[in-house]
Amino acid sequence: MSDAHIEVNGGDVTEVPQKPPKAPSPPEPFQARGANCNWFDDDCAQLGLPGGDGADGVAGARGGTGGNGGSLDFEADVINGAVKFHAHGGRGGRGGDGGDGGDGANGGKGGEGHDCEFGRMGGKGGNGGRGGDAGPGGDGGNGGSILVRCRIDNSTNSDPLDAHGGPPGSAGTPGFGGLGGNPGDQGATSGDFAASSDCPDPGIQPFPGRPGPPGQPPDPNTAGRAGNGGSALKIVTG
Fold first, then answer.
1. Among 96, 100, 106, which residue's Cα sits nearest to residue 129?
2. Can you tell me the distance from the alpha carbon of 46 to that of 5, in angstroms, rounded to the nearest whole number?
3. What is the dihedral of CA 95, 219, 175, 166, to 10 degrees?
4. What does the pLDDT look like over 65-84, one tens digit per residue?
5. Which sequence spans correspond to the domains of the chain?
C-alpha cells in the first residue's frame, strides 16, 4: 500500500536570472601623428596611443525566494503512518551568472615616418575587464503550519507531519574576464632617410594587454539561506 500525501507546499523557484550582456570595449585609438619633414627641422613621428581597458562585467542577480508553505487544518477519526501531511517551504532559485568583462582595445597605430624619420611603434593593448561576480542563490521558503486532530493515532512508528523550511538555491557562475587588446601596428618607415638624433629608433615594441580576471563566487555572508521551519501539531482527542 502506497503512502497518501496531503500537501500545501510552497513552490520551488525554477526561473534563473538572465546573464548580463558582455561589458563594452572602448574604441581603438586614432593613429598617432606622423613625422613632420621640412628643411629647417624634422619632427619625430609619435608613438601609438595605448588602447583603453575593457569595462568590468556586471554581477549576476540573486535568485528568487522559494514560496512559503501553506496552512493545513485536518481532522480525522483515525490517522496511520500511510498518510503524510506536507507544508514545507519551496527551494530558492539559482543565482544568475556574472556578465563577462569587456575586451581591451587594440593599441593605436604608430605615426608614419614620411621619408625623414622612423615610423614609430604602436601603442600597448588595453587590459581586459574583470568578469562579473556570480549571483547568490535565493532563500528557501518558510515552512507552513499543520494542525491535525484525530481520535486514534496509529502512526507511532513514523512522523507524518512535515513543515520544514525550503533549501536555498545554488549560486550562479562567475563571468569570464575580457581579452587583452593587441599591440598597435608600427607606422611605416619609407623612402631614403637619415634618422635625426632626436628620433634615433622606432621605439620599444609594445606589449599586448592583460586578460581580465574572472569574477568571484558570492560572498558567503550574502549566500541564500534555508527557510525557517513552520509549525506542525498533532492533537489526539482520544
1. 100
2. 79
3. -10
4. 999 999 999 888 888 878 88
5. 1-11+28-238
> So what's the pLDDT on residue 87?
94
What distance in Å separates the CA atoms of residue 85 and residue 5, rounded to the nearest whole number?
Answer: 6
Q: Edge-to-edge strands of the sheet including 4-7?
A: 4-7, 83-86, 161-162
Neighbours of 41 (CB within 10 A): 9
Give the pTM: 0.83
Enumerate the β-bridge partners of residue 73.
Answer: 147
3-state secondary structure of 134: coil
Give Cα separations from 1 to 74, 76, 81 (angstroms): 22, 19, 11
Please report, for the chain, how many H helices and E strands are present, in that order. 0, 6
Rg of the chain over all Cα atoms, to the nearest angstrom: 34
